[in-house]
Amino acid sequence: MSTDQTNSIPSVCVTVGDGLAAYGFGHGHPFGPDRLWAFWNRMQAEGLADQVSVVAPHIADVSEIERFHTGDYVARVRAQSQTGAGYLDAGDTPAFKGIFEAAATVVGSVLDAVDALMSGTCRRAFVPIAGLHHARRDAAAGFCVFNDCGVAIETLRAVYGIRRIAYVDIDAHHGDGVYYAFADDPDVVIADIHEDGRYLYPGTGGAEEAGEGPAQGSKLNIPAPPHADDTFFFSAWEQVEDVVKAARPECILLQCGADSIAGDPLTHLRFTPAAHAHAAARLCQLADTYSAGRLLVLGGGGYNRDNLARAWTAVVAAMIASSTSLPSAFAVPLDQH
Ligand SMILES: [Zn+2]
Predict the structure, then answer these.
(1) pTM of the prediction?
(2) Across the chain, what does the average pLDDT equal?
(3) How far is the CA of 142 from the centre of ligand 1 (A)?
(4) How far is the CA of 162 from the centre of ligand 1 (A)?
(5) Which of 103, 161, 175, 299 suits a disulfide with 146, CB 3.0-4.6 Å?
(6) Contact between 39 and 312 (Cβ < 8 Å)
(7) Ligand 1 center–CA 151 separation, angstroms
């Protein structure tokens, strides 16, 4: 275990800038371009903005996006980005002029975060406008154009030689775009707490969906009943930790969608930011044990601006606390098997 971290190292990177905020579907839309600033204003108000290393957004190139997505689909997004007309899916995800560049900036910012983690520039990284977990390899879905989670996983494999990856998702919606892309991959371990698909988009993620073929048992879906609160979350979380520990991942991803917080306009869960802070704090500790501290956190959904600001700020606060106070972060050893 590394003991060379000191308080002087900027341990937590956070991506902030207009290029990343631009991924949104217009003012007044639930997924509007004001989401990033709602988060960042709260970071500043709480005095946390000065405790992280701020990273500028960066646009991915097509070859990077195509590590996950099909060439035909990427070309279609580029074409519709020119006209700004129509939808990219059946009616949830409208095109707008420049949507390709905005979506590619989400991907590029996440890839920069991956590189920062792998090169040791940062110990943890948070990209607020990211975690677009519904996009499929060949299609947009549910406000998600490019699946940055999927591109990150493919990049960890192709560029950095990482095999075992844990993907944890506490967004209110099932992360179907990640689940089905890696359903038969035993080395991508997924643990996903979400509102029961019988009551919420996208309708998938039943407990029986545990992976396919050789990957059977490598995925954990925990559907929560509508109105489930922190009592449900903290109980379910124990199962998530068991899955992550068993995986011994070389890198951990967390999609911390704030639409699972009570009061979201699109969902029915009633978690509080304490759930999100707990997930981040525990995954920091598991990352220190298994993956050289590498934890990539993606903001995900969240359509009540106060909720997303509180939840994501709580997540970053937990990341800062676990990254700078070494004695406490390392004091309680996890099982080392
Ligand atoms: Zn969501």
Answers:
(1) 0.94
(2) 94
(3) 8
(4) 27
(5) 103
(6) yes
(7) 19
The pLDDT-based confidence of 325 (bands split at 50, 70, 90) is low
Using alpha carbons, select from 248, 325, 330, 326 the residue that is nearest to residue 291: 248
**210 CA distance to ligand 1 middle (Å):** 20
Angle between the 99-119 and 148-158 helix axes, to the nearest 10 degrees? 40
Answer yes or no: are the C-beta atoms of 260 and 242 closer than 8 Å.
no
What is the residue whose two structure tokens read 């998702």?
Answer: 169
Which ranges in 10-141 belong to alpha helices (H)?
Answer: 18-21, 35-45, 62-65, 71-83, 99-119
The full length of the chain comes to 337
Helical spans, DSSP H, in 163-226: 176-181
Measured between alpha carbons, how far is 17 from 313 in angstroms, rounded to an integer? 17
The torsion angle over the Cα atoms of residues 271, 124, 240 and 309, rounded to 10 degrees, is 10
CA of residue 315 to ligand 1 center, whole Å:
17
Strand partners, 253: 167, 296
In the reported structure, the alpha carbon of residue 42 is separated from the centroid of ligand 1 by a whole-number distance in angstroms of 21
Quote the CA–CA distance of 283 and 12 in Å, as a whole number: 14
Residue 87, pLDDT score: 95
What are 198-242's pLDDT values in tens digits? 999 999 999 999 999 999 999 999 999 999 999 999 999 999 999
In angstroms, the CA 178 to CA 136 distance is 8
Q: How many whole angstroms separate alpha carbon 95 and alpha carbon 79? A: 10
Residue 323's pLDDT is: 81
How far is ligand 1, taken at its centre, from the CA of residue 259, in Å?
Answer: 6
Question: 101: which 2 tokens?
Answer: 């560049």
Burial label for 64, CB within 10 Å (0-12, 13-18, 19+), is: buried
Q: In this structure, what are the phi and psi dihedrals at residue 194, rounded to the nearest 5 degrees?
A: -155, 165
Distance 26 CA to ligand 1 centre (A): 18
* Share in percent of the chain as helix, strand, coil (round to 5): 40, 15, 45
User: Which letter does DSSP use for residue 136 in this model?
Assistant: B
Question: How many angstroms does the Cα of residue 183 sit away from the middle of ligand 1?
Answer: 20
